[in-house]
Specification:
heterodimer; A: alpha/beta; Rossmann fold; six-stranded mixed beta sheet; 36% helix; globular; B: seven-stranded parallel beta sheet; 26 helices; 21 strands
Chain lengths: 236, 709
């Protein structure tokens, strides 16, 4: 993990317990948790909250963050629905397999269906964030009987050239703003990337907690894992 | 309650049917109405024929904005026939009428809403004609399920002759023939047990008078369903259903409604504290329950603005009765914008207020088009220079519910920081009745407090005004934070010396406790008119002309006064050399309808009339506060003629003008033409020694309001 000036500055401002301390107390803890395991032995972690017959499945976010991404929704939704949350491959309590192919969209589709099967859910309302819109579309198309409804929050389908380009760009001297979406930069200054990204998505004033939380998540994985996890983008 | 002074004719509706007609079955005609063209259709069933389809008057205008609504008068009342055979009043006959009305209105299927005895008919429809029924909402259902009330068991002794009848013994065929009126009063005293239900009770008694005891006896003698039959019927209901029942219902026990809901396995909405007719007494809640039950789920908000990203925004609801409030509200809005640059103000307003707002470039919210006309109603209630303002206002209840619902839908969809209601009665009343609907800071403005009885209204009117005042006092006492600000447009000395009613506080004491005082708000600075000669030149008034302006403001009620003054013009012209009389008909009176004389000018609406009033030598006006105070502020002599039976003009305004030593009060009925001409001659051009009117009222009001933004 490199520590550029930016990264150090950020770390200096954040007390250790924010980034490395125990997880903050949750408003609600899962009633059930476990792993599904695929044929390659990759473990994917899930949580189940509540026991309503109506299920909401919070899809795994991209691998920079984990299922705690949904922490502000789960306690509320679980009072009305059964809620399933899934850690993405590469973050949280899911495995970080070393092969790129383990992070394919198909693998994520299989994870979601495997979780539904093991929890015993026929179909669920599925909620995706940002790049997982593609995962949800795939679920809708390939498993229409398992998707009762689909909610796309800020869908990101990699059709914006300006957004997608840096993922496949070559190394640069300097990385400004969106250039930081470049895997070369992640290798060079992972913490700098995480901090920039956390601030970039939390663009509203007074978002310090959201930034901290995103950085915490980012530090639960590393540059190489994230690069592998972005296979579906970089090799589309 | 004994009811007198019943309306001789139906009061103005908030909405009139788009189509009406009769269906005829076995020589019995049944009258129906259809409102709106939306989807789906709601069929409001008739209840017991002691009343007719107007029991739905608080629902129809609202529901018809969202759905298509069909009502019909149950046989035995309203515009339907009154067959004498009890066999004509079985539930099955009403069901057949309902189906015939559905056919006549080309209604394949409908959501059924029923009240009380309508429930049996609704259940029969739902069970036997499932393809025609999409859902059932049953309010205070009258069904033979325990527990029974005195009303429910009354039919068993309906035919028993007694020496005397007290309480529910009055539910008796002999007594009805003997003293129908007393039975009706008793019955509705039991149907409406909530305090302050005078209007709802009067309405119901009035509808009961449209039928007769013989007809109602036939309705009770008609065979109906047993408990076993009812149970067998209820479990056959498959469509969505809802039971709404008041906890204080003395006609049908809430436990009975709950039992029905259990049989149908449907939701029960318990209205705690409500009695038998919540659709009339708690119309806002019932409307929303029915809308949510029937409605296709409302479109989710398609956009939402983060609180931090919002601009400050206020909704100004300006009373439309007359033009008086418009100018002062615009002045307050102007001051508010000075205190909060960038403040956006939307206006929920109707004609004639909208004319002023348009001229001022204000933004009138499009929902304003949905408002039912209050000015139109007030005009319809007025006679020659007479407006029983209090009764006219009471008889506006249907319009007030409608207009509150328009407001409700608007603020449900659009967030505002602040609501300002200048004598926006519907807003203030129904917010206090439904305080959970408040979702913004709220400021109430008024220039008078307290309904006052006219002397010739007797005890009845005195008790009614006191009852309305007591309800207001209770509202403020129970929900003291609902009005975040209450601003009296005037000063404590402007308040009359009366009490709000026997045992109630003095109006001045109570107002001083609960209001801030802004001083009067003229909407202009009289200093701007200090150079009268220049103003007169600008308005093309000659130096040798003696200008007399006759105006009745924005109301359409003033035509009689205009004609009386026009009649006095020739005589006045003899007394006053150079007299130039200008009659301003206002926005609601056609100038062409008024007589013309040589030397008399008749014009329509005049924008900035106050400038002309500032320049004139005499004004002749009604007793409305705004115009009289504009004249006072400009130290102009004027004659004012309070409208007959208008308590505000006769008491509140007159009290204030006398304090200012402004104007000469005249009674139109005791002033013959020559007296009017003499008064014009005496007063025109006179130096006026009145108190000064403050010029900072709008700013003071705005400062108090701005604290909430």
């Amino acid at each position: 993990m490199s520590t550029t000036a930016d990264g150090r500055k950020f770390l200096e401002r954040l007390p250790d317990w924010v980034l490395a301390g125990p997880e903050p107390t949750r408003a609600r803890y899962p009633d059930h948790e476990g792993w599904v395991v695929d044929e390659q032995g990759v473990h994917v972690f899930y949580e189940v909250y509540g026991d309503s017959s109506d299920t909401v499945c919070m899809l795994p976010p991209w691998a920079l963050v984990n299922s705690r991404f949904w922490r502000l929704q789960i306690p509320y939704l679980a009072r009305h629905f059964r809620v399933i949350a899934i850690d993405p491959r590469g973050n949280g309590r899911s495995d970080r397999p070393p092969q790129r192919k383990s992070y394919s969209r198909a693998a994520h589709v299989r994870d979601v269906i495997a979780v539904l099967d093991v929890v015993g859910v026929e179909s669920a309302m599925m909620i995706s964030a940002s790049p997982r819109a593609a995962l949800l579309l795939a679920l809708c198309v390939e498993h229409p009987d398992r998707v009762r409804a689909a909610v796309f929050i800020t869908p990101q389908l990699w059709i914006e050239e300006g957004f997608a380009r840096p993922f496949t760009s070559t190394a640069r001297e300097r990385y400004e703003e969106m250039d930081k979406m470049n895997p070369h930069y992640w290798r060079e200054d992972y913490l700098g990337f995480v901090e920039w990204f956390a601030r970039w998505i939390a663009c509203y004033p007074h978002s310090t907690r959201l930034i901290e939380e995103t950085v915490r998540h980012g530090l639960e994985t590393d540059a190489e894992t994230l690069i592998r996890a972005c296979t579906t983008v970089t090799r589309r | 309650m004994t009811v007198t002074h019943l309306p001789a004719r139906e009061q103005t509706r908030a909405r009139y049917p788009d189509e009406t007609g009769y269906v005829e079955r076995e020589r019995v005609n049944v009258f129906w109405e259809r409102y709106g063209d939306g989807e789906p259709t709601i069929l409001c069933l008739p209840t017991w024929s002691i009343v007719h389809s107007r029991v739905w008057k608080a629902q129809v205008p609202y529901l018809a904005r969202h759905f298509r609504v069909v009502t019909f008068d149950g046989r035995g009342n309203g515009r339907s026939d009154r067959p004498s055979d009890p066999g004509a009043y079985t539930p099955a006959e009403f069901v057949a009428d309902a189906l015939a009305v559905m056919d006549a209105t080309r209604t394949d299927a409908a959501w059924i809403v029923s009240l009380s005895m309508g429930a049996l008919r609704a259940l029969l429809l739902g069970a036997d004609h499932p393809d025609r029924v999409q859902g059932l909402a049953l309010i205070g259902p009258a069904v033979p399920l325990p527990p029974a009330t005195a009303r429910a068991t009354a039919p068993s002794v309906f035919e028993a002759r007694r020496d005397t009848y007290s309480g529910w013994e009055k539910f008796n065929s002999h007594y009805w023939l003997e003293n129908y009126e007393d039975f009706v009063s008793f019955f509705f005293s039991q149907a409406f047990t909530e305090p302050h239900s005078t209007k709802q009770t009067e309405d119901a008694v009035g509808w009961a008078r449209e039928t007769d005891p013989e007809t109602l006896i036939a309705t009770i003698r008609a065979p109906t369903l047993s408990e076993d039959e009812l149970r067998a019927l209820a479990v056959r209901i498959r469509c969505p259903a809802l039971v709404i029942h008041g906890s204080e219902d003395r006609i049908r026990a809430p436990g009975s409604g709950a039992a029905l809901a259990e049989l149908m396995r449907c939701e029960l909405v318990a209205l705690e504290g409500s009695s038998h007719c919540p659709q009339a007494r708690d119309p806002v809640r019932v409307n929303l329950i029915v809308r949510d039950f029937v409605g296709p789920r409302r479109a989710r908000t398609s956009a939402w603005t983060r609180a931090r990203a919002r601009r400050r925004k206020a909704l100004y609801v300006s009373s439309p009765i007359g033009l008086g409030h418009a100018q002062r509200d615009v002045a307050i809005a102007r001051e508010l914008r000075k205190l909060h640059p960038g403040l956006e103000i939307d206006w929920l307003a109707q004609d004639p207020v909208t004319r002023v707002l348009e001229a001022e470039g204000e933004r009138i919210h499009p929902a304003s088009a949905e408002l039912a006309s209050e000015s139109g109603h007030i005009e319809s209630e007025s006679a020659e220079h007479d407006l029983h303002c209090f009764q006219a206002w009471r008889r506006m209840d249907e319009i007030l519910v409608n207009n509150f619902m328009v407001f409700h839908d608007l603020v449900e969809a659009e967030p505002y920081d602040l609501w300002i209601g200048d004598e926006a009665w519907e807003l203030d009343y129904f917010l206090h009745e439904n305080p959970e609907l408040k979702r913004a800071a709220y400021c109430w403005l008024t220039d008078f407090v307290g309904w006052l009885p006219m002397p010739d209204g007797g005890e009845r009117e005195a008790s009614l005004t006191a009852d309305y005042n007591a309800e207001m006092v209770e509202h403020i006492d129970r929900f003291p934070r609902l009005r975040d600000r209450a601003i009296f447009v005037g000063n404590p000395e402007d308040i009359v010396t009366d009490r709000l009613g026997p045992e109630l506080p003095y109006i001045r004491d109570w107002t001083e406790q609960h209001f801030d005082f802004a001083g009067y708000v003229t909407g202009f600075d009289p200093a701007a008119f200090a150079d009268r000669e220049a103003l007169r030149a600008e308005l093309h008034y000659g130096t040798d002309e003696r200008v007399c302006i006759v105006t009745v403001g924005g109301s359409g009620v003033g035509e009689h006064l205009l004609r009386r003054v026009i009649d006095a013009h020739p005589l006045a012209a003899e007394h006053v050399p150079g007299l130039r009389m200008i009659v301003v008909a206002g926005p609601r009176i056609d100038p062409a309808s008024l007589p013309r004389h040589e030397g008399l000018e008749v014009v329509g609406y005049v924008h900035d009339l106050y400038r002309h009033l500032a320049a004139c030598d005499l004004a002749v006006v009604q007793g409305g506060l705004t115009t009289a105070m504009e004249l006072t502020a400009n130290r102009r002599p004027f004659l004012y003629f309070p409208l007959g039976h208008h308590f505000e003009q006769n008491f509140h305004v007159r009290h204030r003008l006398e304090r200012y030593r402004a104007g000469r009060c005249m009674d139109i009925n005791s002033s013959p033409t020559d007296a009017i001409a003499d008064a014009i001659a005496e007063e025109i051009g006179r130096e006026v020694d009145c108190l000064s009117v403050e010029t900072d009222g709008a700013r003071r009001a705005a400062e108090r309001i701005a604290e909430m933004l």
